[in-house]
Design the sequence.
């Protein structure tokens, strides 16, 4: 069975922010291991990092850049990740959540983002804590440069609109095929005049935006607007692409949001299965249920979904003798409610069929023609399901 890797956006705005399976406080007395300023992979016991320093380069204030750090277990024992944190300010962020263990020979990817708010140099430290020998505490230097001379006000150099999109990267992890995952984004106009949000352009149909407002949308100076981006996988493949925000900002008319995720099929049968029980007995399609006026005038029908996907019943109906000719007995339905109804896997609903007769009568079941119950549901071949209803009144 696959276990989905859940990736979530984490914003680090406090003096120290940690997350992981457990929060491990940073001890000042522990000098730890400080990585050298080199681009080569570096090993600490069985834990190998793809790089020793993460340098984001030059980024415009108000924009973001992302980098990945790969953690590989080259040993023979499982490495448990105890904590991941950034020690200082809010310009550097961790944007993916690591699971608790790295199996031998496997790796995990830690995604990082740098978002300068002014021109100048920025530095911080990423702290990794594990149970591996020689890698109990590893410190990775983070560096980036805010470009230009914007003075830190993020309003742009020429006045006018200045659109900022935050965040600009989402990794949704593994999502069940047909289901949707969403990520929150914030559109902010840090300029001095209105900006028009004109469209959201997707590079792949599995990625999109939530459609929270009509386009074009006028975003006033100094204002923000929340929106969402979505991932809806249709195949069991890894997908990557972009959702691009197109606007009237002359400096940044198109801002791309990097998107990624993997579709997976969690089901085995991958369809609903309808089973009908009457008095504890399974009733096969096109078979009949007998009603005897003296022994009992009603039966409960339990409609069970024994599949592993939702079953949507669009209607349950009871049909009596064709045109009612020569029939003293009638069948009626009780307890169904309104259409449609959705039945989760291994859940059920119960309806009651009542038989009444005003005189001696023999009402023969002819499923699909006369005296029968019809269940219409979301199955290509087995729907509708007809069950005959026969009654005898002496």
Sequence:
């Amino acid at each position: 069975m696959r276990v989905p890797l859940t990736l979530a956006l984490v914003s680090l705005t406090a003096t120290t922010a940690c997350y992981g399976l457990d929060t491990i406080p940073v001890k000042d007395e522990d000098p730890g291991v400080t990585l050298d300023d080199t681009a080569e992979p570096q090993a600490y016991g069985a834990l190998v990092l793809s790089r020793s320093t993460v340098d984001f380069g030059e980024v415009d204030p108000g924009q973001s850049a992302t980098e990945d750090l790969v953690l590989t277990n080259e040993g023979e024992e499982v490495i448990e990740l105890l904590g991941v944190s950034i020690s200082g300010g809010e310009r550097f962020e961790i944007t993916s959540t690591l699971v608790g263990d790295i199996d031998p020979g496997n790796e995990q990817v830690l995604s990082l983002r740098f978002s300068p708010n002014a021109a100048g140099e920025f530095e911080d430290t990423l702290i990794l804590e594990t149970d591996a020998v020689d890698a109990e505490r590893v410190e990775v230097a983070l560096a980036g440069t805010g470009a230009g001379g914007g003075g830190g006000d993020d309003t742009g150099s020429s006045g006018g609109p200045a659109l900022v999109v935050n965040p600009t990267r989402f990794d949704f992890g593994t999502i069940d095929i047909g289901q949707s995952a969403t990520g929150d984004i914030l559109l902010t106009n840090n300029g001095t005049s209105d900006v028009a949000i004109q469209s959201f352009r997707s590079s792949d149909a599995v990625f999109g935006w939530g459609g929270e407002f009509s386009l074009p949308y006028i975003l006033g100076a100094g204002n923000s607007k929340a929106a969402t981006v979505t991932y809806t996988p249709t195949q069991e493949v890894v997908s990557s692409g972009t959702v691009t925000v197109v606007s009237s900002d002359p400096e940044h008319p198109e801002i791309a949001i990097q998107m990624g995720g993997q579709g997976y099929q969690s089901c085995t049968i991958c369809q609903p299965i309808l089973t009908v029980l009457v008095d504890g007995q399974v009733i096969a399609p096109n078979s009949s249920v007998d009603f005897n006026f003296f022994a009992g005038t009603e039966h409960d029908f339990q409609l069970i979904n024994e599949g592993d996907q939702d079953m949507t019943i669009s209607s349950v109906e009871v049909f009596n003798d064709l045109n009612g000719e020569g029939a003293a007995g009638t069948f009626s339905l009780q307890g169904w409610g309104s259409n449609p109804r959705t039945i989760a896997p291994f859940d059920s609903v119960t309806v009651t069929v009542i038989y009444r007769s005003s005189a001696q009568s023999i009402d023969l079941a002819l499923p699909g023609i006369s005296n029968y119950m019809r269940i219409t549901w979301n199955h290509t071949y087995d729907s509708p399901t007809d069950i005959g209803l026969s009654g005898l009144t002496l």
In short: The radius of gyration is 31 Å. Residues 10 and 323 are 66 Å apart (CA to CA).
